[in-house]
User: Which sequence fits this backbone?
């Protein structure tokens, strides 16, 4: 069973989303780092959702889904590729809210 890096206190992407809860960002406290499937769905809908970074170079967004102890899934938002990256890498974060 795959874990969630949101449960790992040293994961900066998950900490970023948790910090949004602490600060009550936009008046809400139910932000989280999306799982790989949720992030892939966001990519599919990204033409209708603002705020994503697009570029001719690789733009990866973190998911909360681990593939190994040191790896997590990322989604490349210039064409939808899902792959893995080391958790210490620098990639974009898109927090979403629970409903």
Assistant:
């Amino acid at each position: 069973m795959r874990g969630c890096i949101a449960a790992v206190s040293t994961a900066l992407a998950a900490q970023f989303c948790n910090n949004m809860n602490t600060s009550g960002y936009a008046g809400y406290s139910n932000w989280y780092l999306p799982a790989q499937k949720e992030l892939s769905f966001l990519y599919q809908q990204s033409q209708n959702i603002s705020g994503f970074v697009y570029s001719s170079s690789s733009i990866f967004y973190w998911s909360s889904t681990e593939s190994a102890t040191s790896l997590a899934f990322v989604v490349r938002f210039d064409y939808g590729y899902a792959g893995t990256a080391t958790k210490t890498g620098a990639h974009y974060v898109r927090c979403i809210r629970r409903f």
Helices lie at 12-23, 36-44. The mean pLDDT is 82. The first strand starts at residue 31 and ends at 32. Strands lie at 31-32, 60-68, 71-76, 82-86, 96-97.
